[in-house]
Amino acid sequence: MPDHGIVPPALDPADELNAPIDIDLRSIIDPIMQQRTQSPIVIPSRAEELSKLVAAGMPRDALPLSEVMAEVQSLTDNYCRRTSHPGFFGFVAPSGLPTDPLSHALVAALNQNVTGYPASPAGATIERTVVKWLAALVGYNEQAGGVLLSGGSMANMTAIGTALIHRFGASLRREGLVATAGARQPKIICSQAVHFSIQRAAGLLGIGTDNVVCVDVDDCFRMRPGKLAQALDTHDCPICVVASAGTTTTGAIDPLDEIAHLCRQQGVWLHVDAAYGGGGLLSTELRPLYAELEKADSVTMDLHKWFYLALDCSVVLYRDPSVAKRMFYDRSDYVQYPFDGPAESHMFFHLSPELSRRFRALPFYVALRHYGADRLGRNVLHNYKCAQYLSRLVQAEAELELVAAPQLSICCFRFAPPSLSERRIDEINRRIRQLIEDEGDFLMSPTDVHARPVLRVCIVNHATRAKHIEGLIKRVLAIGQKLVAADTCL
Fold it and tell me: 3-state class of 276 per DSSP?
């Protein structure tokens, strides 16, 4: 190169960042995997105390990695909630699979930005394969499509955004909801048991939470089709109907066949939130519970729930992905890919709001290839049977009351001796839940059913066995009886 007298920049070798990491990953990961099933599930802590265990200000100087890891482990070894514990029954938390640490390390090492095929041919090929597997699981045909997202909330919002373009057409993107809807009031129709992410989506998309119409549920917490029909007749601008295939509180599955029929009659988009319940499709024995799911226009499933994967991976599936493209398709000076084109031009951001995306499909691909869908499905079925077992144990105890029988793998019950007032029963159940969490072997998230506290058990862990169900019942009875005895002594 000619000498122009221009001095090239140079980085001090001591400042280079590409030196190999001199640390044994297995020595860090293996103890974590061994501790995941050890009690206590969570150690009580104060935020002020934990903040003292990490650096207070922006670090300016380098430290040996061994010192950094020791600092991190001083916090994470003791103060991470162990959602992989077989006694963790709270929320709908991921248990994770033994293949996940390897898969996620590979995701980080490969560092693929899977915006589409041009950005990552390998990543796009694996993700499109995973989407095809999941679409077939739902019952969709070869024309279906979808995209992996961060979680059920993002997936539900993406599906409702697609329903908006289905309702109002392409002008919605240009003119906005207010101009397109005019004097009409767009509505989302769902059940009272729907996940609150639907209200959040309504707020974010400009529909408004006041325009989420929640219809009554039956005694099994399922949407009443008759009430849905009334709502569809009452409101002149329904955006979509959101049905649930596994509600978060009780695990109820709405009557999908009747709901799908009503939506077809009215030409209304049907979205099914199966974020929690979708994993049940892996079990051939449970699959009939989801009859007519394939008639939904879109479906959400979280792979980091009942598919057992570690966080984070959700999917939104479309029976006709071209509708989603009408909402999310974009071109720019430096991003120029056709609306319809060969597989080599496929872009995932044409189906959702996300642009930059990590290689989310890889952990599921590895897990499904290693374990197989049938083996995972037998674990899902075992979770279902454990919930049924819990229900029978509850019904066999005079001091326990079954509040919501399990339809999938969630069971809600109460400690309710007949001699106690409803107010005292409520107080005792709140105390039981907290005292059991304090003991460390079991954890249930605070939950109300019919505005009264219940003991909610959500079983989505492949490590949970019948002995854990028996142990929980034993502790609930022992603690409840002790609290009642303390009342008697007053």
Answer: coil
Residues 6+ apart with CB under 8 A from 215: 189, 190, 191, 192, 223, 224, 227, 228, 230, 231
What pTM was estimated for this model as a whole?
Answer: 0.95
d(CA 451, CA 436): 22
CA distances from 324 to 110, 168, 360 (A): 29, 13, 20
In degrees and rounded to multiples of 5, residue 190 shows phi and psi of -150, -170
In order of 20, 27, 104, 294, the CA distances from 24 in angstroms are 12, 6, 16, 47
Q: 10 Å Cβ neighbour count for 342?
A: 8
Look at residue 341 in the predicted model and tell me its pLDDT. Answer: 86
Nearest to 312 by CA among 135, 106, 82, 104: 104
Per-residue pLDDT tens over the stretch 257-275: 999 999 999 999 999 999 9
Two tokens at 344? 């080599």
Per-residue model confidence (pLDDT) at position 423: 96
Check residue 182 and give its pLDDT.
86
Q: How many CB atoms lie within 10 A of CB 69?
A: 15
Tokens standing for residue 351? 């189906």
Q: List strands edge to edge, sheet with 410-415.
A: 400-404, 410-415, 452-458, 447-449
Q: Report how far residue 165's alpha carbon sits from residue 185's, in angstroms, rounded to the nearest whole number.
A: 15
End-to-end CA distance of the chain: 94
* Angle subtended by helix axes 65-79 and 25-35, to nearest 10: 10
Domains annotated on the chain, with CATH: 105-371 (3.40.640.10), 374-489 (3.90.1150.170)
**Among the listed residues 81, 87, 38, 2, the one whose alpha carbon sits nearest the alpha carbon of residue 468:** 87
The whole-angstrom separation of Cα 115 and Cα 334 is 13
Q: Which amino acid is at 253?
A: I
Residues of the chain with pLDDT under 50: 490
Nearest to 457 by CA among 228, 447, 100: 447
How many whole angstroms from its chain centre is CA 119? 27
What are the strands, taking DSSP E only, across 303-350?
314-318
